[in-house]
């Protein structure tokens, strides 16, 4: 039996995490963020498997 590594998951597996003010949904290789409230400063970082930042963006979100 192959050893399962941290972060391994079945391609068809859905995951979601709910914590106000954001809900995170993972489907295959996509990550969707659903915001319930406005956020003045949101820092988004994309990191590679070694932990190095490959993209970084600071945004604000206004819910009307």
UniProtKB/TrEMBL annotation:
InterPro entries named among the record's database cross-references: DUF3244
Stated name of the protein: DUF3244 domain-containing protein
One Pfam family matching this protein: DUF3244
Region (Disordered): 1-20
Superkingdom of the organism of origin: Bacteria
């Amino acid at each position: 039996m192959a050893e399962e590594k941290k972060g391994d998951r079945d391609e068809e597996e859905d995951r979601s995490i709910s914590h106000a003010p954001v809900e995170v949904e993972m489907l295959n290789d996509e990550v969707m963020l659903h915001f319930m409230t406005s956020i003045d400063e949101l820092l988004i970082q994309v990191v590679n498997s070694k932990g190095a930042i490959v993209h970084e963006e600071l945004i604000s979100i206004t819910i009307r």
